[in-house]
Write a structure and sequence with these properties.
By secondary structure, the protein is an alpha/beta fold. The chain has 3 domains: 240 residues, P-loop containing nucleotide triphosphate hydrolases (Rossmann fold, 3-Layer(aba) Sandwich), CATH 3.40.50; 129 residues; 86 residues, no CATH class. Helices cover 42% and strands 13% of the residues. It has 21 helices and 14 strands. Helix 2 crosses helix 3. The relative contact order is 0.09.
Length: 466
């Protein structure tokens, strides 16, 4: 950055002021709040619950621990906090721990400033370089976090008592920045003790060295609720040193869940069919996740992640694309018969409580049926399709299934014109693929409402009068 001061003297002349990292974050957070901008980008459903607590914690200058089940955007919120740092920060050139040119703390930086004075070279680091992150694992050591003697430096001829023989860990290397620990309970308790000074006295000590590094670090952590597993816990003295414990949650309504799915799902590109997932099918996917979170047969301590909705949405779209490719259709719109593909994307994301072997598939199938029925009742008033039920009483049979082309499925509209109105409203268009999907959804809704029978055979599915 040629336009920025390159020496300590130039930095002083420029009028730049050094402030602690929490004050820097507070200042930038206050500007965003005053401007009506969110502190965290890309996180939906927390506007009135979690984010106000985050704003309070940052304005108060607190270290934060986010407590919540898997898939609740804890890591995303932590990583987005770097946006509250100044874009560029001056450091002593060559410093491993981003020493403040005005107040150096490492032996290297202190010696350099003492030797060069106002000619001490200054570098500028981007805010992204001021973020450090560690996934806590049982084998994490104090050396990883704080530091250790570097045998190579000792072999070069330095004495063990020389501070320059130290290899700094992740925490010192994030000096004047934000350091994050994900899944904090996984960190061994004896290692958690090593963080106590970082949070309270704001320093680190390495082994038996008589050194003290007064670090300027904002510490943020994430954890699952302590009653989720037996893998570990957060020791009480460490928990006490966090200024704010913020509880996260899953989307509180289906609409927010759908918005998250649309934001996070990977679109299908590079194939020869156009894929369009209708809103009512996305609503089925989101409703399934909400039903799973309410079920007493699903382990609620492990949670039902939003990743379930995202994976199911992507699988549903892929299943529709596979059918369209096989049948040679240009458009792919997911149908109810594609929901059976969700077994693979659901199985690994929910933990079933005390069911016999193989019964988990039955539970998922039952929740899917309940989700379809819930959406059907909300979107298709029964009085709009009552005449259609009467037509089936006269012997009409509608064939559906994964191997049925859109044109074949739409033949039922010629036999039961009363279905067209509800199907068009659901589809939102007259395209054959969208109408066929809507027709099958209405037929399945009538079946689940006990107005029609559904039979499964080698020839596929058939809807007929009860």
């Amino acid at each position: 950055m040629p336009s920025r001061p390159a020496t300590l003297g130039q930095l002083r002349d420029s009028g730049w002021e050094s402030v602690p990292v929490k004050e820097e974050v507070r200042r930038n957070a206050a500007r965003r709040i005053a401007a009506g901008r969110p502190l965290v980008e890309g996180v939906l459903g927390y506007e009135h619950t979690v984010l106000p607590q985050v704003e309070n914690a940052l304005l108060a200058g607190h270290d934060i621990i986010f407590l919540g089940e898997r898939g609740q955007a804890k890591t995303r919120m932590i990583r987005s906090l770097t946006g509250l740092l100044d874009e560029w920060l001056p450091v002593v050139a060559g410093s491993e721990i981003l020493d403040d040119p005005y107040h150096p703390v490492s032996r290297y930086a202190r010696d350099l400033v003492a030797d060069k004075g106002e000619e001490t070279p200054v570098e500028w680091v981007h805010r992204d370089a001021r973020f450090g992150e560690k996934l806590a694992t049982p084998d994490t050591s104090i050396a990883d976090l704080i530091g250790e003697v570097d045998p190579i430096k000792v072999a070069e001829g330095r004495y063990l008592s020389d501070e320059l023989t130290l290899h700094y860990g992740l925490v010192p290397r994030t000096n004047r920045g934000i350091f994050a620990i994900n899944e904090l309970p996984d960190l061994a308790e004896r290692i958690q003790v090593g963080l106590l000074n970082v949070l309270e006295e704001r320093d680190v000590q390495v082994r038996g060295y008589k050194i003290r590094l007064p670090l300027d670090v904002m510490l943020v952590a994430s954890a699952n609720p302590e009653d989720y597993t037996n893998r570990g816990r957060i020791i009480t003295p460490l928990k006490d040193r966090f200024g704010a414990q913020i509880r996260t949650h899953y989307p509180l309504d289906v609409e927010t869940e759908i918005a998250v799915v649309h934001q996070e799902a990977t679109p299908l590109r590079g194939i020869e069919v156009r894929v369009d997932v209708p809103e009512y099918m996305a609503e089925v996917i989101a409703t399934l996740s909400h039903l799973a979170r309410q079920s007493n047969q699903v382990n609620q301590r492990s949670g039902v992640s939003v990743r379930l909705s995202v994976a199911n949405f992507e699988t549903l779209a892929a299943g529709a694309a596979r059918r369209a490719l096989r049948l040679g259709e240009p458009d792919a719109v997911p149908r109810v018969s594609d929901l059976e593909n969700l077994a693979a994307s659901t199985a690994g994301k929910i933990e079933i409580e005390s069911l016999d072997e193989g019964r988990d598939g039955v539970l998922v199938e039952r929740m899917l049926s309940q989700a379809v029925l819930t959406v059907f009742r909300a979107r298709v008033p029964m009085d709009t399709v009552r005449d259609a039920v009467g037509a089936f009483d006269e012997g009409v049979v509608a064939r559906a299934g994964d191997d049925v082309a859109s044109a074949e499925l739409l033949e039922v509209l010629g036999q039961v014109p009363a279905l067209r109105g509800a199907a068009v409203r659901l589809a939102g268009s007259e395209s054959p693929a969208a109408l066929a999907a809507a027709v099958e959804f209405v037929l399945e809704g009538l079946h689940l409402s006990k107005r029609l029978n559904k039979e499964s055979s080698g020839a596929g599915l058939a809807y007929r009068a009860r």
